[in-house]
Amino acid sequence: MGLLLQPEENAYSHDNASAMTSQRCLAGGRRLVGALASFFRITDRTFVFSLATTSILASKCLHIYIHSQVLSLGELIQWLPSLFVQDTVIILFLRFLLDGKALGRFGGGWFRFLATAFSTIVALLQLSLAVSNISFFLMIGGEPRWRNAGLVADSNTWAIMLTGLWAFVSANAGLIFGSMLLKSPLFFFAGLALDVVKAASGIVLSKICICRRSRSEIEYAPLGKEEYYDDVESSYPDSPGATAPASRRDPKLRMLYMGTAVFLFLQLLTSILQPAEQAYIFLSWTALAMPIVDYLRGSDSPLTNIIPVYEKSMDQKWDVPFTLGQPTHWDWLPNQGSAPAGFDDWYGDDKQHYDRRLDPLSHPNYDKDLLDSLKGKLSDVSIRNVMLIFLESTRKDVFPFKKGDYIYNKMAATWDDKRLPEEAEKRAETLTPNARWLTGDYSDGFDHQETPRRGGINVNKNTPSATYTLKSLTGGLCGINPLVADMNREWNYHIYQPCLPQIFKVLNNLNNVSATDGFTNRPFNNSFMMSVTGQYDHQYELMKGLGYLEDEMVDSEYLHSDKAVFGNITVEDVRYDGMPEPAIEQYFRDAFRTSRENDTRLFLTHLTSSTHFPYGLPGDEVYVPMVQDDANNHLQDISKHLNAVGYVDRWVGHLLDIVEEEGATNDTLIVLVGDHGVPVIEMGGASPWGVPSMGSFHVPLVLSHPHLPVIDINDLAEDRRWYFTSVSPGGQTISTRSMDSPRWRLLVPLIQDAEWYFSDLETDPHEETQVASFDFVGMLRAVEKKHGVDAAKWAEEAAFATRWWVTDNHQRWRYI
Fold first, then answer.
1. Strand partners for 197
2. In 372-449, which residue ranges form alpha helices assigned H by DSSP?
3. In the 8-state DSSP scheme, what is residue 717?
4. Burial level of 654, CB count in 10 A (0-12/13-18/19+)?
5. Cα dihedral 293→294→295→301 (10° resolution)
6. What is the per-residue pLDDT for 104?
7. Which residues pair with 605 in a beta bridge?
């Protein structure tokens, strides 16, 4: 019998379990709904609305502030209401959704719940956009380009973002706290505006006979203040009566309605009359639309639509062939086997290669006489080894650092007596002794008992090929212009010239050298060293494309791996991307020792890192504040950056000591070059990303050898009449200058919604009063008005030269 009853018991148990499961699901659903309801009660509708409104207005005000240069003060005041129309529409729509009584006719509690939920989602989205905009501005000094949002997918970017955590937290806290303070007045005044819109809409509808009641049957009376809050406690007194005319109920309320109506009318009128110019269109976009606009409009280049104003034949003048031709044959290239890396263009009948002879911008000087100071001085210069040091984020005006210069004066101004205190003054005096020794520049405002100089060529007006490190590396190692495209895309396209590591490897295989040539017939060893990550933005792939093999690379990942020759390193990271420079010391010393013992030559490239934000230094380093403690974050960053500059200067001196200890001083050419500068001094930005400040475009260049005379080059270090620098991230703006008019600079936008900038570096070296415009013709007219017709004509030709060069650049890189 028990066996017969068992199935029924099992069935009962199964049904019971199913019922219990259903009950749990229902209970879970109730808890979820209850949690959401509790959330919406805690964050009441006035707060949700205030959070959205505060975020919207903060984003728009920042948006206008960043691009305010494109409008005069008069234009900005005249059309300011029209710039907020989109924001007003969104704000009033959210106010309508959060007005419980207004929504009553559409449904019950669930409809209100859905409206509140939707509004909350919009508010959180607006908060996210506002926090992103504010954080980016606090860190960089500019505005994010949403077309580069894919960078977030790179795990190395997460570490970079953590360095801006303080800005993220500050922006969130400020917006949330401000929303809490302003929630009642914002909700109230938006209610006034919504009432005005309702009344105006009713009048319009009645006029076109949509509303069939006679005008006398329609009464538009303002609602009582308590109705705006809709069961939320009001900080305003109740109005006398909901049905009495506003003039009899509350004269102050009537004035508020009239003022609101006038403001909304001005917004409508100015938006209708607003000039159809790019500046107004761009400044009018609300934050919620900016990511979409950036994606949809980012690929359209304004260069395609420029027309000449002064020289009507400018189009024909720059309608010249591009620079690709048949490569020149070199007898020393191997005739058999596959093409050496970097020399593919020389193998194959159909290959084309960049030909300087076809380049209308080329202005070479190799056919001119040697500098007088170098004549007869080169025969004793022995160059067995070449050490190329890229100085990360290093400006020329800190190499060496100078008293009384722009940076020094900015720091001194933060102190009460407008002077650096003794400790800071001492640090400033001893900040860059090795830079002085290498450049031979002791005109720095400090007293010097001795002025030792190592010897070499110091270029005072050097400009980088790009303000993005990986692009600058490509330009420096290959002698080319980086690809005009955002981020490191060079690795995936045709690097159109062989790079130094590749050239040295081809030279290693030459057979036509004699035994009497000394070390010149010895092979080169290539090495690239840095103490930080090599994984950011496809750097591994790029270094391979530049000619470095895996075993020729030393970086943070290698140093922490089992492959490390000297074992897994134990040096602590000081920044998000790796360790301080001394982590590679053993490998640096070993490279010179191995070269000496094996009778080989050495080409060693080193990228420093400590001068990159956030300027992390080892714990045993003494930090000396160069600005007063209560100075703002931007000035504190200047102090941190300069301490890092001093640290790297001491590191460079230590490297020179190692070269001396390894007996290589007299036959090693040391080249030091800045990859780019930083706009921290002028703009407060920690990076040149999207910030074309001149502080990012003036970098040191030194060719140092103890047997070279001390030479200063004060002309522009270029071999082209026009020369161009890609502004980080590389495909959005080009900086254009010329040899014949070096005082002028034009920033050329390559994407929509980016400005044209013109500056006169003689009268405004820190570009505090640039001419800015979204319109090419408008920019030319503004330049003519401020700087004269010659400057405007120069800017016109600079734009056409840049257009030709960008297209030619894409041809060379086969980026088509």
1. none
2. 406-412, 422-429, 433-439
3. -
4. middle
5. 110
6. 59
7. 388, 528
- Of 362-376, 475-489, 499-513, 588-602, least confident by mean pLDDT is 362-376
What is the distance between the alpha carbons of residues 228 and 98, in angstroms, rounded to a whole number?
10
Tokens coding 273: 């009359």
Give the DSSP letter string of 743-756: TEEEEEESSTT--E
> How do residues 260-279 score in pLDDT, each as one tens digit?
999 999 999 999 999 988 89
Got the DSSP string for 634-656?
HHHHHHHHHHHHHHHHHHHHHHH
Q: Which residues contact 621 (CB under 8 A, 6 or more apart)?
A: 643, 647
CA distances in angstroms from 48 to 35, 55, 119, 801, 802, listed in the order given? 16, 11, 7, 52, 48
- Residues shown for the chain: 816
Which structure tokens are listed for 293? 């606009």
Q: Which of 1-10, 356-365, 456-465, 713-722 has the lowest mean pLDDT?
A: 1-10
Residues 608 and 391 sit within 8 Å (Cβ to Cβ): yes
CB 91 within 8 A of CB 190: yes
Determine the 3-state secondary structure of 460 from DSSP: strand
Interstrand relation of 722-726 and 524-529 (parallel, antiparallel or unpaired)? unpaired
The helices-and-strands tally (H runs, E runs) of the chain is: 25, 15
**What distance in Å separates the CA atoms of residue 739 and residue 721, rounded to the nearest whole number?**
5
Instruction: Retrieve residue 220's tokens.
Output: 């538009």
- Higher pLDDT: 264 or 207? It is 264
Nearest to 223 by CA among 204, 200, 245: 245
DSSP classification of residue 714: -
Kindly give the residue spans of alpha helices, DSSP state H, lying in 479-584.
500-508, 539-546, 556-559
The residue assigned the tokens 């959005």 is 732
Map out the domains of the chain with their CATH numbers. 39-297 (no CATH), 382-497+522-717 (3.40.720.10)
3-class secondary structure per residue, 220-241: CCCCCHHHHHCCCCCCCCCCCC
> Which two tokens mark 755?
């400005």
Token pair belonging to 298: 């980012």
Can you tell me the distance from the alpha carbon of 403 to that of 418, in angstroms, rounded to the nearest whole number?
Answer: 13
What is the spatial distance between Cα 504 and Cα 507, in angstroms, rounded to a whole number?
5
Q: Are 220 and 199 in contact (CB under 8 A)?
A: yes
Residues 669, 604: Cα–Cα separation, whole Å? 11
Residues 6+ apart with CB under 8 A from 155: none
Query: Pairing between strand 385-391 and 722-726?
Result: unpaired
pLDDT of residue 231: 36
What whole-number distance in Å separates Cα of residue 648 and Cα of residue 611? 7
Confidence of residue 111 (pLDDT cuts 50, 70, 90): confident
Torsion-angle region of 340 (φ positive above 0: left; ψ -120 to 50: alpha; else: beta): beta
Helix (H, G, I), strand (E, B), or coil: what is residue 140? helix
Spatial separation of the C-alpha atoms in residues 583 and 564, rounded to whole Å: 12
Structure tokens given for 90: 């969104």
Of 106 and 61, the structure prediction assigns the larger pLDDT to 61
Contacts for 652 with CB less than 8 Å, ≥ 6 apart? 389, 434, 435, 438, 608, 672
Q: Is 453 exposed, middle or buried (0-12, 13-18, 19+ CB in 10 A)?
A: middle
Average pLDDT over residues 560-564: 94
Conformational region of residue 732, where left means phi above 0, alpha means psi within -120 to 50, and beta covers everything else = alpha
